[in-house]
Amino acid sequence: MSGPRRDPWSVLQSRTPARIGLGRCGISLPTREVLAFGLAHAQARDAVHASFDSTALAATLSALGLMTIEVDSEATERSHYLRRPDLGRRLSEASRARVSGLKSKRCDLALVVGDGLSASAVAAHAPALIAAFLPLAAKLGLKLGPVAIATGARVALGDEIGVLLKARAIAVLIGERPGLSSADSLGVYLTYDPRPGRNDAERNCISNVRPEGLAIAVAAFKLAWLIDASLARGLSGVALKDDSETALPREDTASSLGRRDND
């Protein structure tokens, strides 16, 4: 006598957070799935509108021995930020003057930490990522500029900051647009020779940095590898292929990327 029939979707569901094999109740979804979808949608909305505690973040990064400066974009209200992406790509006049007043010397890399579309992702993961990256940056002998903590930030805001800080490259750590399976995903965008007018094809992106996605240690390693390659070759973006996984120990690649040998 055969045992109970195994749901063929269960194996696939164990491999992905995507909504597959949800089942049905008549012509509708089961109540549990309707409620789960509503919760995920609410979490995504909350992430987009979450407040950004730049002061607390500055204190955390200062404890790591980093010099920080708080800046704002021209998107002074959250509603403006969401409706006018262009405003989030430009520093406010006061912030521009503040950064210019630092009279920064030439540096290899400047970090920008911006709220983006998920301030909760930044608060949860940016300090840990930077802490993991700093020893790697020291091994590479990178000269780091001040860390700009930006409110109302879009990725391109880093281009203007990079020019003012005289940075050879800029790495923007920013909250990614929440999805219905992840409201706390952090993205990292690297641009060589930053300046206003750079486009997305000229950037390298490390995305989905979070415990359930790309592990902090792997993201830090990828960032260090990309920066080293970018500065050596004088480029970034589609012209710079991310081959960092070939340099990772096999066990780190497998475990940190959430893989198993029998997958």
Description:
The protein has 263 residues and is of the alpha/beta class. It has one domain (49-256): Rossmann fold (3-Layer(aba) Sandwich), CATH 3.40.50. The protein contains nine helices and six strands; from the N terminus they run αααβααβαβαβββαα. It has helices at 9-13, 31-49, 54-63, 78-83, 93-100, 119-140, 157-164, 216-233, 250-256, and strands at 68-72, 107-114, 147-151, 167-175, 186-192, 203-209. The radius of gyration is 21 Å and the shape is globular. It starts with 8 loop residues before the first helix and ends in a 7-residue tail after the last helix. 38% of the residues are buried. The model is unreliable at 253-263 (pLDDT under 50).
